[in-house]
Amino acid sequence: MTTEPLRPQADLRIYDGSPDRIERGRLRVPLLLATLLTAALVPVSTLFDVSVSRWLGGRPMPGDLSKTIELTEVYAHGIGVIITLMLILYLAPRKRWCIPRLATLAFGSGAVAMIVKMFVLRGRPNRLNLNTAPYDAAWQWSFDWTLDHVAIFDSSMRSFPSGHTAIATGLTIGLCLLFPRGRIMFALLLGLSMTERMTSYAHFASDLMGGLAIGLFWTYICLSPRFLGALFDHIEPQGHGFERQKEAYIRNRAA
Q1: How far is CA 159 from CA 3, 28, 107, 118, 180, in A?
Q2: pTM for this structure?
Q3: If 0-12 CB within 10 Å is exposed, 13-18 middle and 19+ buried, where does residue 97 land?
């Protein structure tokens, strides 16, 4: 009996998938359901916006934890996305074909959130005195359907939705698809970056739900073959994209 040795690439390869990898095709329906759920949570969480912000302000955290949460803002920022894409390009060259879709997932989510911001006028938590503000203070919404206030774009009145959360959501799902082994770490970074938006009083919890819903919906658009997914499927060669074939290293047995 003779056996053929494994290919040398098997020992040196960058992680290309495993039996527990995430299937892109199976995510489409859950993404739609998650989008609807998080969108429905926006009005519900508004009831607790002031209470949550007040609780966070009254609970000082240890210095190291506070600094860690503060630094995770980079993960949800455009600069952090660019750094992530560059790291993938240089450290995981086999996945360079996925960079266009990953960039679209992150920056596209942020762009959609920015478009929504143009129509929604809502003050940020740092505009309120949370110690005396009533629970319904977060219900001060107004809509600029005619875009009369776009010329004087006041960021302090553009709280909804959270653009950082939308960017981080698209980036996180894309990274989980590319590197399944790191999905716990990516989800943790998403959670910490969302926490940072509240601890810095930049957003209410309902703003985060809105950004999360936008990121989930845009991810569905980028993964579904009925929409942008078809375009990216043509860009990404078979075996080098989000929908990879499982690699098997089989030993040949002589009869």
Answers
A1: 63, 29, 18, 10, 32
A2: 0.84
A3: middle
